[in-house]
Structure formats: structure tokens, C-alpha cells
Amino acid sequence: MQIKYGFIGEFIDSTRPQIRVLAFWSGDRFIPNFKYYIEGTPCSTIYETGLQIYHHSIQQLFPEYRDLLTLQAESYLGIYIVDSHGKNIGYIAGLDTKPLKHNYEQKKSILKIFAARSVAEIERKLVEKALKKQNIYLQETLEKFKKTQAQLIHAEKMSSLGEMLAGVAHEINNPVTFILGNLNHIDDYTKDLLNLAHILHRNSSNLPDEVIDKIKEIELDYIEENLSKLLGRMRGGANRISKIVKSLQVFSSLDTAKVISVDIHVIIDSILLIIQPRLQNPLVRIQVIQYYGELPLVNCFTNALKQAIMNIINNAIHALEIKFYQNKYGVEQPKISIRTEKLENDWLGIYISDNGLGITEENCSKISTPFLQLNQSVKAKV
Fold it and tell me: What global pTM score does this model have?
């Protein structure tokens, strides 16, 4: 059509009619695409009429549109692009620096041909854009599904582990209870036997030589001194097993779907008892400092709370293992502090801190990602 500038654009859905230019030919090259509002431009008449030609004086007709002055435009022609469903999706237009020759019907026919050819390309691009958007949505949905699936699998594993722990705890608890219950009887019987042995020892002159020799052989005084200590250690060991079993029972409670009242301190103590082997690692011995406030019973999903607290403490232990492996920091000792307090408006605070390496600024934004692994390896475990 022998015009200097030619461009094609698509309409953007917005409260104000707006155009996104898809291609702009400036006479010798394409310039970067851009967006603009059509109010006060020649394109506004296309938006209303569907086709418009201005043979001359375009700057005078649209004085507020300063780009016409920059382009030194004198004439304009443009037409709507209508898709296969009859919807206006864009436009194709041209500008020239001199007046157009008077041949309205010819220019109108040419514009319609260009519009017909352009609509197929624009529709293809719109379909590609829609497909890309749909693919992004499907990809995000798939990622959410994978995360949800991982959470469900993890929850199922934890449920199975809880059932197993509950069963093991029950099986251990029965014989331990039997041992603890009979240690008192053993203590009483032992004292009676030792008293009898002392009576016999005091009357050794009337005893056969065989009995006297046996008393000397078994070192009765040594047995008397160490037997009570041995029974005390047995009672301490059995009590410790009993505490561990109770902690397992608390931790493996299967009331995952119920909101129940729990003592936060009992939960924390049970967790610390279960993970005590990690705290007492010979290479990195970790001191746990507890500052417990007076807390009421709390209504909550206990397993979720227990898992959250255990994860935080395990993360703290790992950070301390990395920092203090082989006691690289000399005087400073690894510590975990756990503090609880009652807050206002029926809130309570659980604060868990450590003097480990901390988390990098880079990873701070990732801390809410499910099952994210940021741990470095450390050979401090035995």
C-alpha cells in the first residue's frame, strides 16, 4: 500500500481498552513491541467502527496523541481483526508521512485481505499462549499432587510406625512391669538371707567345717556390700526402660484424627528421652536446657505437634553436630534451649534454640517446603 509504518496488535482485556503491539515496522526495521491505551488515538475509531481511513491531517484530528508528531504521520488506515468466532481480537493498521491517494475501495479491500491473513496467525499465537498457560497450570497442579502424595505417603508411614511402636512398647512394658514388681520382693528375700547368713556366721563355732569354708569362699561381706548396689542398678535400669516405654507410648499415640488435651511438657520430655542417644553422642555431647513455664493442657492434634517439635530438635542436633564435630570450637559447648510460656489470649509459646551454625539467608525462603533436605553430611554419629 506504499506506507511507511505498519503494525499489528491484539486487544487486552482490561477496564480501559488497551492494545499490545505484536509487530511494528518502522520503514527499515522492526522496533520492540509495546502496549498503549487507545483513547485519543486513531485506533479508537477502529474500536467503534471496525474500519477507518484518514487520508490526511491525522495530527490535527488527534492532537493529544503525541506519537503521531514523533512519527511525522500525515495519514492513517486500519481495520479490526475478527476471529473465527466473530470476536474482535486485534487490528492491523498503517501510517504514512504523506497524504494517501484517493482510492478508498482499493485500500479497503487490501486491508481486509491483510486482516484475513493475520487472523490465522494471531489465533495460532493465542492458542499457543493458552496451551502454554494450561501447561503451566497442569505442571503446577502436578507438583501440588506430588507434594500431597508425598505427604500422604509420609503420613501413612508415620501411622504404620506409630502402630509398630505402640505394639513394641506394649510388649516391652509387660515384662518390665513384672521385673519392677518383683525387685522389691527380691530385695526383701535377699535381706532375709543375708540376716540368716550373719546369724550363722556369729555362731560359726557350732557349724560344720563345710559351712564355714563355704562362707569364706563366697566372700559373704563382699556380697552384702555389692548386692544392694546391684539391685539398685537393676531397679534404675528397669525404671529407665519403663520411662522409655511410656515415652514411646506417648509419641506413638494413634489419635491422629482427634483433637485431644495434652501436656506439652510431657510431649517434649518423651521426645528428649527417645532421641537421647543423639544428644549423648560421644563426639558431640549436647546439653539440653529446659525452662518450663506453667502451661494448661492444650487441645491439639498430638501427632502433628510431636512431629513438628521432634523435627525442630533433630534439625538443631544436626546443626550442632556439624559445628562442634571433634570439638572444633574449644570453650563453647553445644546447647539446645527449650522454653515454654503462657501468652495472652489463650496462646502459648514454645521456643527452641541452639548455638549451631544457623540457616543461611539463601535457604530461609525454603523452610516451609515439605520434606526439604538441606542437611550437610557429618560423621559424628556412632
Answer: 0.43
